[in-house]
Design a protein that fits this description.
alpha/beta, 7-stranded mixed β-sheet, 3-stranded antiparallel β-sheet, binds 5-O-phosphono-beta-D-ribofuranosylamine
Length: about 210
Amino acid sequence: MKKNVSFGNFAILASGTGTNALALIETARESSFLPSFVLVNKKESPLVDSVPLLNIPCECIETKTKGVDEEFEKKALELCQKYEVKWLLLAGFLKILSAEFVNSFKNVEGVSQILNIHPSLLPKYPGLGGYKKAWQNEDQFLGHTIHLVTPELDSGPILLQKEFRREGYESLSECIEENKKQENQSYQSVLKLLMEKGLTLSDGVISLGD
Ligand code: GRF
């Protein structure tokens, strides 16, 4: 049996430079379906200054511990309740989330309503440094993956995966720079489909669109 999971109020979580977060905001603005807020866990993130200029609240809750930060998660959940946020888009959010936190974003069918973009062709290279690991292993293909987040690290259902040839890149940094642009485009196309058509659950398998 097929079941549609429609998209809803969402927030973006980020830690770093924020190219994916800004790309998502650009797509959201085109559809007038703005994120309720952007949450960063590092006060140095350039998003702290750039996001409010787009008339979107940017909240900063600094993380202080390695691994799961319970205090951060408690405050993040309070924010989500305040803004009635049901979906999270992780965009370069470099913090492990607890199973309890992740499971609180499951819908009634048990489908995760948290998305993540990961810089490798999962299941290869979960964790940090996906491009670097593929580059150092001299993989012929590198790539990125957009997936639903489950409590197990970087292993939830895959919505989109894009690979590219290593050939032609002189250095790892050149390769990352070029392919971050492709990440931005991939995440934008996923968000567009999610807003327009949601997800489909069919015989336990989740896919993007209908
Ligand atoms: C991206 O490479 C993304 O795949 C990974 O973290 C990086 C974030 O980049 N999860 P940015 O902050 O969105 O520019």
